[in-house]
Amino acid sequence: MQRNQPKRECNTRSVLPNNQSADFLNNAMEGNESDDRNSQRHLSETSERQDQILNLLSKARELQVSGEHFKNYEQAAEMLKQALRLAQETSNKDSEAEICGNLAEVLLAMDCFVESLSYGQKCLSLSNEAGRKDLEALANSYVGSAYSKLGDLTIGLEFHKKSLDAISTTDHQKQRWKCLFNLGTTSTELGDYPNATKFLTESLTVATDLGDKAAIAESNGGLGVVYYKKRQYPESIFHNEKHLTLAREVSQKKSQAIALGNLGNVHLSKGDYIKAFALYQEQLKISKEIGNKFIEGRALGALGDVYHCRGETRKAIVNYEAYLRIAESLNSKSAQANAIGKIGRAQHSLGENRKSQKNLETLLELSQEIGDKATEGFAYGFLGNTHRSLGNFEKAIFMQKKFLEISKLIGDKAAEGLANAYLGSIYYSLGDLENALKHHQFNLAINRELENKGGEGRSVEKVGNIHFERGNYNEAIKCYQESLEIARSIRDKPLEGASYANIGNAYLALGMYLQAVDIYEKAVPFAEAAGDQRMVGQMLGNLGNVYNRMGDHEKELECHQRHLSLCEALEEKQGEATAHGNIGMINYRMENLEEAIHHSEKQISISNSIGEIAGEMTGCLNLGKIYLKLDELSKAIEFQKKALCFAEKMKSLDKMGSCHYDLGVSYSKSKEFEMACDHLEKCTQLYAEVRRLLFEKDVYKVSLSDVQASSYRLYTQCLLQQEKHEEALLVTERARSAALADMMVVKYGLHDPKDGQREALNEGSLREVVSRLGGQIIYYALSGAGKENVVLWNSQGNSAPQFVGEANNWKSLLDEALSEMKVNEHPANCEDRSLPSRENTRLLEDRENEEEEEKLKGDLLCCPPSKRITPKDRSSALEKLHDVLFSCTSPDQATSDLIIVPDAELHRIPWAALRNENNESLGAQHRIRVLPSLTIMKAIFKCPPDFHDQKGAVIVGDPDVGTVLFKAKKKEESIAGLAHANEEAQEIARLFGVEPLLGEEATKARFLENLDTAALVHIAAHGNSVTGEIAFAPPPEKRKPVLDEEDVILTMAEVQNAKVRAKLVVLSCCHSATGNIRAEGVIGIARAFLGAGARSVLATLWAVNDEATLEFMRKFYQHLKVGKKASEAVRQATTALRLSQDFQSPSHWAPFVLIGDDVTFENLEQM
């Protein structure tokens, strides 16, 4: 006995409604009463054999109506065959025709399609001989259904049309319903949805007129499938739920099973895997109860689909193979095609490309053989994906275009979207990002229109990948986070894993290495659980890149070699090329240059063979680095130019920038500084655009600045080599506190980053800023020739900044100076309680860029020996540090204002404590201010006049914190009270006539709600030792024995998101001027207040004594209230402490630093 089964999407494509399992008997004996009586009359006129026939037909009917179990059908078929033999013995052609038709129908219900076809053809032949139009209509219907179930859809459709033509000459409405229903379901399978809708709607009308609930149910089910195919999910759910409800009302198990499967398909496509799984399980249970192999196979395949979507691919394949065995036992080409296609797709997702190719080619052949256009389209699409993985891009594009063509032809919008997605992925691999984005966005729009959450998640992820390649990391991360959210909501494990991995890639590109490691570790289990070897390989490659940044080259090499082995086994050419490139660069770093060249050339060769220009670009760039190390500069430049051509084709900002940077390195090494500057100018412009596209994401910009810093330093060196001193300062200024300047101009309403890049400081605006600042400005910048080498500029009045020289050996002197001042040796009354540090955004160094700078060390000296500054032989570290940093540009004694623009760890220097050649502290001689950059002063000077014209004050003192659990260290800390901070806040509040926030009242919420109306903000509280973040009291509803840190710690992010319009923010806390030192500057709480809108910030460099701070603040406000500049008030307060009996040590008065503008308050009492 042979059986067959159609595809999962075709659950309602049976010849007759499932509640009519004995439908022929109903038609021949009940539904078609006149024919039944005629048949009975013929039989009764015969001998005893004819009575036996009648008896057998009656028993067969009883079996049919007693239940839908397969055994009932088997027994009924056996009785009908006995009846047929008796009819043949009596030579009763009429009875013989009717019984053949009856057998054809029962065998259809048993999924014995070949045998059913044989009896249907006999019925058709006999009915033609007898001139029985009613039987002819039924016979055509049975033959059509058998052909359709066997996959010959076009032939099946022709027979159904003949059936409708035949029945139109009669008045048999039930048979007319069957014909219309079968025409509708077969048209659905052929992708002819307009005709399918027309026929099924007509069938529903006929069924409704007949009042036949079972037929109404089937027609609704058929329409549900059409709407599902058209991806009109709400309409599909409506009709399928009607089908299920009516099937339950008439107790038709088979019909219920089909309705459950159809509903499951809709929910699966919408991404509701949980609901779909439950529906398919119920369908499988019913199919086994009634012994229906046809539906059982379909349910197994559907459950496999859910496993596949969830990433449990091996489980999915087990189900698909069970489905295939059933399909083969039924000899159904369409069901076999469906099962084989599912297996092929699953194999492709596991990276088993050759196995996948073989199965998908079989799918294509079967779909063409049976005339199933929809399946043929998908076969082309799936095969195209396999060829893409194998690197056969030309063939892949051809197949995807065929898929797109067929999808449009049959009007399948979802398939059209998928074809666009597949084409987009190919163009992405080829580096054609513009075409890739167009196709993926088209697919995204369709998925959103169709409410397909799984498809939407994948589309968003693909769009994110394109933004990533273009260097738009902000948009990329937004997309990845959206795809991650969707994946979690629908429990799509592969998408969740891919989203994590992509976020990790973005963090890696931004230099956020610790976050990248954390994210990659989250992604790996998803790949392993899914058994997706390609994804496992990608994860290994990603981890290898992180180990590179960590300097663990042994682990890095192990990861990339495993990645290479996996890709070679899977014939995953793109991954193989990438792995070769990574292994080549490991050998480059380990000085195995011959091996490095071999692997880089392999990367280029493989990438070229598959047309993958991103791989060719990377390989050429890597060869450029290798030949540079070999001092073969012409070869290095040749490959770097090739890489640039590829990057320009891809229109990737970041990659074009990298190519220009490498060319800048090569030309600078060959002393062609003008050419080097040309490329470095282009590089820094491209990098600035990459940074702009991060928009408001300050944490990303800060980290990216670390990655890009070497290009600005190299550019500065090359300009200094040409004695273009002012240009060199302007280049340095472009990168200095650029993210902070971005924040400030947005807060001031001066610029929207979406309108283009913020205007950088130029020659004219530089002079304007210098002039408005007044005083003497000393500007420092790391030279790139070593971590302790800095170059200096000096500017005063309206004159252009003058290059002074290069200093080194200051870092060790700084440590000596801090030790000399006994900064870390405070008694117990120091306010600092060592609040555990929160997460750092980046603790790992960018070793790759460091290596580039290291290559140039010694080759590029920024100034001649006469300009190099060395310390004089003096005893104190504070004196020596002064000599190193100021001896060539000693602050003018006649100039009161000394403005310092430091770089890197120079921000840690207590400038006021440095001693000049007369052994006088700078703080005694000058009003000292520190600027993160000159650019931020340009922003402050241009801010609207009324922006800082507030009148109020917010004063905070001694917040009652309690015990806090700090997540980073998983440690509880008890935060003690600060008596002098409380007193300090009350005294200052009296000056302003305001009520201070003290103790339990000093919550974050109370503080933040009043910020935008305050001209002055003063906080006397505990500060974090790393970032200066401040501890506040918890809100009343959150107070408990052990507090959560988010309820008490005022973070940098919270400050940056607040509206601050204060002229001055005084952070009378420990470490408030400190933070993580990055290329951007000092990333701490003081910077956060400047970025939020504050004009000036007074902060501290280290843990300050509680009583000394109180005394300092008394003196500071005493001078501030009479209209003195903030810098003068700081100098007077510093002098008072320095001359006091108890606080004369620099550790008490030197940590206070004024950052930003020099503000004044005309009348504090009026405020």
From TrEMBL:
Biased composition (Polar residues): 12-24
Start-end of each TPR repeat: 257-290, 457-490, 497-530
Residue ranges annotated for the CHAT domain, each copy included: 877-1157
Domain of life: Eukaryota
Keywords recorded for this protein, A-Z: TPR repeat
Protein's UniProt keywords contain Repeat: no
Signal sequence annotation: none
Annotated Basic and acidic residues bias: 1-11, 34-49, 825-846
Domain Anaphase-promoting complex subunit: 68-93, 163-216
UniProt keyword S-adenosyl-L-methionine, yes or no: no
InterPro entries: Apc5_dom (IPR026000), CHAT_dom (IPR024983), TPR-like_helical_dom_sf (IPR011990), TPR_rpt (IPR019734)
Region (Disordered): 1-49, 825-856
Name assigned to this protein: Tetratricopeptide repeat protein 28
